[in-house]
Structures are given as structure tokens and as C-alpha cells.
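sorry for the late reply, my laptop died twice this morning and i had to redo everyting from scratch. anyway the thing you sent over, i finally got around to it. pasting the sequence first so we're on the same page, its 239 residues, then the predicted structure underneath. double check i copied it right bc i was rushing
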Amino acid sequence: MLFKVMNPITESSIPNGSGRAAVNRENAKKSTGPRTEAGKQRSKLNALRHGLTGQTIVLPTEDHSAYERQSQLFLDEHQPKGATETQLVQSLIDTSWRMNRAAAVETNLFTLGITEMEARIRANHPEAEAALAMALTFRENTRAFAQISIYGQRLARQFERTLAQLRQIQSERRAAEERQLDKAAKILKMHKHEHLSSETGPYDPADDGFVFSTAEIETFLLREERTQRAKIHDFYAHA
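ok and here's the structure:
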């Protein structure tokens, strides 16, 4: 008996010799993903399988809005400038999220174990039964708890290293900005002192290669003046 194959896709039928990659693309177009509830659930569990070590940050079972709120808190605290600082802050966000996930997995493992073990323990005292169930859960899942601990420690070290790197880069950047502001402030003061505005117009920091606005330089000057007055006041107050 002969069977007729409709529209076969073979490497020889793919134009320009694109080969197996094109075949895979054609097959992927036909995939509609899991259709049954059981299939969809297995798909979710696939994402959870390597949740602690994989690259997926927000898993299907997690609250994406909570991740966004946490991200905004980190951005507000560190206020990154430029691509490098932004990348480091993003790393802090993702690492902290995974640290919290590891802690949640440990708690959930204990909860699951206690629920399963309580039926095996009869101590005639609810608190004692719960405590014994927790101990039994830990004893029978030692390897799982050890792995969670290793993941947590690894993530904590990564977080600390990233935070230290971010602080160093931001400290160097702010020091450089302070030096540039000081130079720009001196030029602006000279410009005002020599009444150059009447000849050349208002001072434009960009003419000297500065990225600051005149308002930012003025704010810096005011801050320097207040700092100097505060030092003088403190000197006479303790004289």
C-alpha cells in the first residue's frame, strides 16, 4: 500500500541550501504548544526545573509585578548612569530575586514535608508532632536542602561582588564628575567676574567640553559656598 506524503519538507527542497536550520524553522511554525491542561502544567514545570540556576528570571508561577516593584526600588536606590552601571544594577535585581526564590523553595520544601510526615508521627501533641515532622523532613531531604544552601551562598557571594563593583565604579564616576564640576565652576565664576556675558553672551559649558548644564554648575557653586560658610561657622563655634 502506498501512502502519499503531502508537501514534504526536505533539505533539497529548501531554497539557497539553507539546510536543517530552515527545516527546523518550518517545523517550529507548525507547533502550537501544549493544548491540554496537563500539557500546559508540564510546560510550566519545565520552566521550574532549573529555576535556581537557569537564566529565566521571573517564572510562570511568580508575580511579575512584584519583580517590577523590586526592580524600581533598586533603580531608585542606586540611580545608575550609563550602560555599565545599569547592567550591574540589573544583575543585583536578578540575583536578589533568585536569592528570595531559593529561600522560598526551602520554606515550601519544609511545608510540603511537614504535611506529608505528620501522618507518620503520633506524639499526642500538635506542636511536638510538627517539630518531629520538620526534623524528619530535613533528614529525608538532606541533599535537597544542601543544594538550596549552596545555591543561596553562591548567589549571596555574587550579589556582594556585584555591589562592591557597582560602588567602586560609581565612586570613581562621581569623583570625576566632581573634578569636572569644579573646573566648570571656576570658568563660570571667571566668566561672571570679567563680565564676558556682555561680549560673548551667556556662558555655555559645552564650549569647554562639559556635559553639565549652567544650572547644575550654579547648584554646585551654591553648595560649595554653603559648605565653606558651614566650616567657618563650625570653626568659631568651637574656638
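Residues 142-193 form the longest helix (52 residues).
thats about all i looked at so far, will dig more tmrw
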